[in-house]
Amino acid sequence: MKILRLPGTSAPGVTAMKILIVEDDRSLMEIMTAALKKEGYTVECAPDFRTASEKIEVYAYDCILLDIMLPGGSGLELLARTRKLNTRVNVIIISAKDSIDDKVSGLELGADDYIAKPFHIAELSARIRSVVRRSRRDGDFALKFGNVSLEPETGRVFIAGREAELLKKEFSILSYFMHRPEHLVDKTVLAEAIWGDHIDQADDFQFLYAQMKNLRKKLHDAGADVEIRAIYGFGYRLTKIQDK
């Protein structure tokens, strides 16, 4: 299955919250999608375990609406995988199974909230706003790793307390890794996440290598205590620089 194109980055200071709906009931998925898009959210959908797993591995979301019972696997397993990726995404479990055991299992695995079917869209929207507010308490919207701080909403990056100037693709690459610190990233997956369908026009990965070389140099020159390390034969990992 080909990974779908990553939506274009909004202009600095203008952003739409990105939501992934993981739901196998197509009619419910369509209702939720239409309602959330009307409220200004960017919405993507996954009808089964495999599609959802691929999307969560590759893309960054602000909130995932996650059904427990899915074709091909369990929503709870997806939740566990999401947390292992070190992502800061908010997760709201949506399930017809309104049992205490499901709620406890989901919350113990790191879910931020739980809502049982059937529900009103107004309640769902309120739950989304609530979990996002909690995750953004104290007004800190930045992704931080080492002495690098990246602000997705403003398009700004600070290294060792000083603002760094990055090109759009460099920012997108760094943002991808900042959502997944210490996570090994396949170069093909990275290329598809950043360039989308345009990757089909390339004969090799020289376009990725060039952008990565420039970004790694900028991190080094700015005094970053983290680096995007090349893992021979596989890809890259954003990791902290070990003291010599």
The CATH class of the largest domain is identified as Alpha Beta
Sheet-strand content, in percent, reads 15-25%
Number of strands: 14
- Mean pLDDT across the residues is 82
Shape type: elongated
How far apart, in Å, are the first and last alpha carbons?
43 Å
Strand order of the largest sheet: 2-1-3-6-7
Order of helices and strands: EHEHEEEHEHEHEEEEHEHHEE
Please mark out the parts with pLDDT under 50 across 5 or more consecutive residues, or reply none.
1-15
Explain what the structure shows:
α6 crosses α8. The N terminus is likely disordered. The strands form four sheets. Strands 2-1-3-6-7 form a five-stranded parallel β-sheet, with helices on both faces. Strands 8-9-10-11 form a four-stranded antiparallel β-sheet, covered by helices on one side. A three-stranded antiparallel β-sheet has the order 12-14-13. The protein has two domains: 122 residues, Rossmann fold; 95 residues, Arc Repressor Mutant, subunit A (Orthogonal Bundle). It is built from eight helices and 14 strands. The protein is α/β, with parallel strands linked by helices and 244 residues long. The longest helix has 16 residues. β13 and β14 form a beta hairpin.
